[in-house]
Write a structure and sequence with these properties.
Helix content: 25-40%
Bound molecules: adenosine-5'-triphosphate, magnesium ion
Number of helices: 10
CATH superfamily: P-loop containing nucleotide triphosphate hydrolases
Structural class: alpha/beta
Shape: globular
Largest sheet: 6 strands, parallel
Number of domains: 1
CATH topology: Rossmann fold
CATH class: Alpha Beta
Strand content: 15-25%
Amino acid sequence: MKRGSRTFFITGTDTGAGKTILTALLLDHLRAQGENAIAIKPLCTGPRDDVRLLQSLQPGALTDDEMNPFHYAKPVTPLVASRGRLKREHIVSAIRQREGECERLLVEGAGGLRVPLSSEAAGVTWDEVVNTLKCGVILAAPNRLGVLNHVNLTLDRLKTIGAKKVFVVLSDCNPPSRRDASAASNERVLAGFWPETPFLKLPYLGSNLGTPEKIRAARKKTKKTLARLVSLL
Ligand SMILES: Nc1ncnc2c1ncn2[C@@H]1O[C@H](COP(=O)(O)OP(=O)(O)OP(=O)(O)O)[C@@H](O)[C@H]1O
Ligand SMILES: [Mg+2]
């Protein structure tokens, strides 16, 4: 298998797009199948909730600092939170260090694909990290009004950098009572724009999903979708 082909970067159309829940479901699904899958969140700004949830699903695999080597308390973009000290090479080597220690590496980004990370050259964003690693990309997108524009922009950028394995997961982050009218047609419209990109859908999985018990229950409910996603990776 080619280097990086077992590494998947989970990005989102925005912050709060469903990256952690998707990463947690996929991680738990792979591990339940007996695969030695590991999730990392190389950069985290603000509270370390994502780190805690993902770590609870892979107990003993990595220390919090191995799983999340760069943590900044200030909830702002990594470029600002790190006061410009973070370099692209730091991020790439933190990810590469974990490749080879597992069968599948899931890397949750921070924010979306073009979030400023470092001020080197013209400014480094996640797409450069993806391009260096040559890894697959899973785009988490909330199935609501506005998602078409955000998915199109993100997929345009991934196409520009020549990303090969790209998947989109549309999640119903709102309960049915608060779902907007676009939710019924977003997937169809996007599939028309991107006929070669697989689109998968996750249903609304309840509130307060941030515990391992809730993720396990949600993983069982979404087994078919997760199995399909894994079969495509
Ligand atoms: N399928 C779903 N069903 C119900 N709620 C969901 C679903 N997916 C995500 N959510 C909720 O949406 C919110 C944002 O999800 P999540 O934390 O995964 O986003 P994120 O992209 O990781 O955010 P961040 O940028 O903070 O890392 C959370 O409250 C989460 O529980
Ligand atoms: Mg997250």
